Amino acid sequence: xxxxxxxxxxxxxxxxxxxxxxxxxxxxxxxxxxxxxxxxxxxxxxxxxxxxxxxxxxxxxxxxxxxxxxxxxxxxxxxxxxxxxxxxxxxxxxxxxxxxxxxxxxxxxxxxxxxxxxxxxxxxxxxxxxxxxxxxxxxxxxxxxxxxxxxxxxxxxxxxxxxxxxxxxxxxxxxxxxxxxxxxxxxxxxxxxxxxxxxxxxxxxxxxxxxxxxxxxxxxxxxxxxxxxxxxxxxxxxxxxxxxxxxxxxxxxxxxxxxxxxxxxxxxxxxxxxxxxxxxxxxxxxxxxxxxxx
Amino acid sequence: xxxxxxxxxxxxxxxxxxxxxxxxxxxxxxxxxxxxxxxxxxxxxxxxxxxxxxxxxxxxxxxxxxxxxxxxxxxxxxxxxxxxxxxxxxxxxxxxxxxxxxxxxxxxxxxxxxxxxxxxxxxxxxxxxxxxxxxxxxxxxxxxxxxxxxxxxxxxxxxxxxxxxxxxxxxxxxxxxxxxxxxxxxxxxxxxxxxxxxxxxxxxxxxxxxxxxxxxxxxxxxxxxxxxxxxxxxxxxxxxxxxxxxxxxxxxxxxxxxxxxxxxxxxxxxxxxxxxxxxxxxxxxxxxxxxxxx
Lengths: 294, 294
Prior knowledge:
Order of helices and strands of chain A: EHEHEHEHEHEEEHEHHHHHH
Structural class of chain A: alpha/beta
Helix content of chain A: 40-55%
Radius of gyration of chain A: 21 Å
Number of domains of chain A: 2
Distance between the termini of chain A: 35 Å
Largest sheet of chain A: 6 strands, parallel
Number of strands of chain A: 9
Oligomer: homodimer
CATH topology of the largest domain in chain A: Rossmann fold
Number of helices of chain A: 12
């Protein structure tokens, strides 16, 4: 099969690298907005051939992966579906965006008679604070989860093909309802990134910022790494998953207020309850994860 | 010289391991609250000998390191200074606690004629989410910073001896005023730990906690690791550095409110300003760090 990549950033290029040696693959074909990216992808052997326009991928591919930032992915999905609807046998279309509800609603709002059965939305839970084609790694998805949020109108064949693609890349594929995906990811990924950005930005503006960065201790170092992720990507995610993210921020802020009150009143017992509950949740989770691996 | 360790947890035991093969060291002597810890430290060869009471370390050591949680360290420092004051040549006393102001004030409140010149407060910026004697590592302090906050009444010899001890363990030793230490650490270490505990606790209590822990993504994983640190240690730190920590929480909460407002009003430009400023601060800091290494 021929697989097309609309977008040759970290995720698209890494998936191409991961599929490179699979016997099922005939050609890997890419489109990149910047010619320097396309040139790099060709010269590094990440793709076999490039196309001049995104929609050309529809003609030469059996499956097209939209691998651009969330809001652009939404536009491009609508654009490609618009063209694919008039094709006799359109390729399977999937994406890798971190929010799924906005793409889902955008396709539903196109006014088609039914959900295009060749469209299967997906999200690999993998990444790096590095971005771009040069950060691509063939093993980026190995032992990582990919969440698919198939519509009841998606064909079983399309869902299977997208699942297989990720399995070939070493990932574990699971499915969940689109609403659950956006709620869970708001909590586990989008909120932590907002907290990290906010913390690093606040400290960077403090009078003590020079000393703070110079003596950055363990806790802060992890936050700064997260806060060095791609700003455009995270702006798009925050805009696309706004409602769930605001709910998550509010829930976090309530919890932090409780902890602040415990500290302000020197309530050591209350602090211990919070700290122990957090530690136990994490340690229990790790035990389960390890048990699963054994 | 003989070095004593009051407390044989991660930090005390790791320092003993690091000093084990130094030619300057005669004996490493330890006191542990739990006999199982002392037995382990002896049988692992981390210490050469154990004493039955903390104050016995004063008689047989040239330098005693108090390596217990912050509030206990404060009590023990006062106790040991109380005894050492009546000794003809007391050993040098230092500690490893994460907050320095409370120890400083506790010693000043003892009503001594002047600061005991053999007391030098210190804080190694190193650690792990693991704790206890079995987590000890000889290289825990290699290339890490140790901050000393010497009082003007501390003798130059005492300061030098404590500095040398840490340099033997591979650390870089720096000095700063006690107030600056507690402000900087509130921002870079104490606040991030509170945020991590609060986030993990809040999510653990959510209706979706099972899914949240199951699909924990990159950002959240780092937070859960931090939140798995020792609850007693962090309760003590929060109590001991309460004022600076509350200021840091409030400053963070203001920043988060700004970001929340930008998200709520879909103000992508404002978000980009915050995200880019955070990313640039971190990236600039990394460039400087790397330049220093070259």
